[in-house]
Design a protein that fits this description.
about 110 residues, about 0% strand, elongated
């Protein structure tokens, strides 16, 4: 239940930041969306009914599933690399999207 609330709050924050105009806030929105996806992947592994992934338990059905953990680790690496690419594009890109409407002197008849 708590993983669903955390994922919902992260998605809410991500959508809020993605709706902003500033590029840094949009990038932070993508980062939050990546974190929400990671929380959903970890919750899909059924972490509430499982124990630690190490040791020698008597019942193998209680051992944590390593597959969701591997998916999350891969997703973290991919999200980090995409964040770096987006930051580089934001820094090297043109800053010509300040106005939402054309100025009267720029409108051609």
């Amino acid at each position: 239940m708590s993983a669903a609330v955390i994922a919902g709050l992260l998605v809410f924050g991500a959508v809020y930041l993605l709706m902003q105009r500033e590029m840094l806030r949009v990038i932070l929105g993508f980062v939050l969306l990546g974190h929400a996806g990671n929380v959903v992947l970890m919750a899909a592994g059924g972490s509430a009914r499982r124990h630690e992934p190490f040791g020698a338990p008597e019942d193998l059905s209680t051992v944590a599933d390593p597959l969701p953990q591997a998916f999350v680790l891969t997703a973290i690496v991919i999200a980090f690399s995409i964040t770096i690419v987006i930051l580089v594009l934001a820094v090297t890109g043109q800053d010509d999207d300040d106005d939402t409407e054309a100025k009267p002197e720029e409108v051609r008849s």
